[in-house]
Q: What sequence folds into this?
């Protein structure tokens, strides 16, 4: 960001109207902080290798050395290994603290730039200390609305930067204290049961000490990483600790499938499964690359499961801090192999949000935590969507429970079969969301928007004119249309048909009778809603921002 265009004031002390920290924020480099955080996170690799080396030493000792001394040596090496692995959550936490500080500093600087530009476009000047002045020869009322608005906007940006600075300093100070006292303490005496809801989980987590939380992240990452109601930062720490193990699971499956089978049918099935594992490995590696990227927005790993086709939940930006949050549910054939590409779609909406509303704190989540249909025969039924409903409901409730500050605007977006998932969850369980968006939908399981239990006017849909999903009609309607097409009155009768416009899973959510709100899409087919020149991308971003 460049310096203000207004004429700099003399290098004298600022007057009483100049806000403190203005010049410092202009000089700040938000990009440097995530890079520093990535350096701390980069230490995790050497720490893991050293810990694995100690494990290898113990394995070498066991065959040829027994007795009291051997037991003592193995115990001591085990203690050293534990001391090393206990550092890992702290390295991820340091990375998070610095990355989030850089992100919030960037938002504050963008807001400051927008306020200065608006003041200048209104004929005001902002000097190098942040004081709002009138241009020479054009006196402006110092208490007038334009000046008051400019001063308030500048102070709000500086307030955000100051709050971010204090928070980051506090988190880093707590880590410093923990390093001196020991990274972990005794484990918590109680853990929530499997039926606990996100609100109960959130209260439990809030009652733990920082050392107890760090113990759980380091010693029970599988539990922490999947618990809706645990803050995003802790889930990210836990799942990153499991990332290497998840890759090893896929590598083990690849080895197990690498031996050819003599019978042709079994060999064909083996090769198909092996190709699936190879694709999942590429997907996981693609996610790992994005997780390691130092630039904004930071990625948070909220869930990863390589079993079956694989599942992943990844956030771009911190949903617990953002004022607007998008949850994106992809459709048919989506699996771990597709996760990087699907995350790219969420990223494009986020980028457009930043362009439309500079200075807004936004986050986008890829929610691929369900078994998406692999074939059309599976996608013809709603079972997999209905099975996914409770998990999506619980995830959205978790976002509500862990959010800091005023409630965020939560938007849930479903594409293709993902819209069936979102519709089923909203209809059967309710969703912690302020808006629902459907693109390329074959129907959402209801006949009217009111059945989705959303605020009035907050159900949106778009279908491209050339999207083949428009042909996804139920068999009875296809039969009626075929029958009517052979009669002279066919077109007139078709127009009067009360079932006209129905798709495979119910009424078309982008149809005029559904009761939702439509936004435009250019002819970009079934997957082009995120193309840069498609107005649908702007539409999705504006809905996320509440515009």
A:
């Amino acid at each position: 960001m460049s310096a203000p265009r207004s004429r700099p004031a003399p290098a004298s002390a600022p007057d009483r109207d100049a806000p403190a920290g203005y010049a410092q924020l202009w000089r700040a480099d938000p990009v440097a902080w995530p890079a520093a955080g990535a350096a701390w996170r980069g230490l995790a690799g050497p720490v893991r290798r050293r810990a694995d080396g100690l494990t290898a030493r113990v394995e070498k000792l066991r065959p040829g050395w027994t007795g009291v001394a051997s037991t003592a040596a193995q115990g001591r090496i085990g203690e050293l290994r534990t001391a090393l692995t206990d550092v890992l959550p702290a390295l991820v936490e340091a990375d998070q603290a610095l990355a989030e500080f850089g992100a919030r500093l960037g938002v504050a600087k963008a807001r400051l730039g927008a306020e200065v530009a608006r003041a200048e476009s209104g004929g005001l000047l902002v000097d190098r200390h942040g004081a709002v002045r009138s241009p020479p020869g054009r006196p402006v009322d110092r208490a007038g609305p334009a000046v008051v608005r400019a001063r308030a906007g500048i102070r709000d940006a500086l307030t955000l930067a100051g709050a971010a600075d204090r928070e980051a300093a506090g988190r880093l100070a707590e880590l410093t204290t923990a390093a001196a006292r020991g990274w972990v303490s005794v484990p918590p005496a109680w853990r929530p049961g499997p039926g606990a809801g996100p609100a109960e989980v959130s209260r439990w987590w809030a009652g733990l000490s920082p050392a107890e939380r760090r113990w759980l992240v380091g010693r029970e990452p599988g539990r922490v990483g999947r618990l809706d109601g645990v803050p995003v930062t802790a889930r990210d720490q836990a799942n990153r600790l499991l990332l290497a193990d998840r890759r090893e699971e896929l590598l083990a499956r690849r080895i197990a499938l690498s031996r050819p089978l003599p019978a042709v049918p079994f060999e064909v099935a083996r090769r198909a499964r092996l190709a699936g594992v190879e694709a999942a490995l590429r997907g996981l590696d693609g996610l790992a690359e994005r997780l390691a990227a130092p630039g904004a927005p930071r990625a948070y790993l909220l869930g990863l499961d390589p079993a079956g086709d694989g599942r992943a939940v990844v956030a771009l930006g911190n949903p617990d801090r953002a004022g607007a949050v998008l949850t994106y549910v992809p459709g048919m054939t989506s699996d771990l192999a597709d996760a990087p590409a699907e995350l790219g779609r969420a990223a494009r909406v986020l980028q457009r949000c930043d362009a439309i509303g500079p200075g807004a704190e936004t986050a986008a989540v890829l929610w691929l935590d369900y078994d998406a249909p692999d074939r059309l025969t599976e996608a013809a039924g709603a079972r997999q969507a209905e099975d996914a409903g409770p998990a999506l409901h619980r995830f959205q409730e978790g976002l509500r429970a862990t959010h800091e500050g005023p409630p965020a605007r939560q938007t849930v977006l479903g594409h293709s079969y993902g819209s069936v998932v979102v519709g089923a969850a909203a209809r059967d369980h309710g969703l912690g969301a302020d808006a629902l968006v459907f693109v390329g939908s074959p129907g959402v399981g209801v006949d009217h928007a009111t059945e989705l239990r959303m605020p009035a006017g907050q159900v949106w849909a778009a279908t491209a004119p050339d999207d083949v999903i428009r042909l996804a009609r139920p068999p009875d309607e296809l039969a009626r249309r075929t029958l009517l097409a052979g009669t002279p009155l066919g077109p007139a009768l078709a127009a009067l048909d009360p079932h006209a416009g129905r798709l495979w899973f119910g009424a078309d959510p982008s149809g005029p009778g559904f009761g939702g709100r439509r936004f435009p899409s250019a002819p970009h087919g079934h997957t082009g809603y995120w193309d840069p020149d498609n107005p649908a991308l702007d539409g999705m971003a504006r809905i996320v921002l509440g515009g």
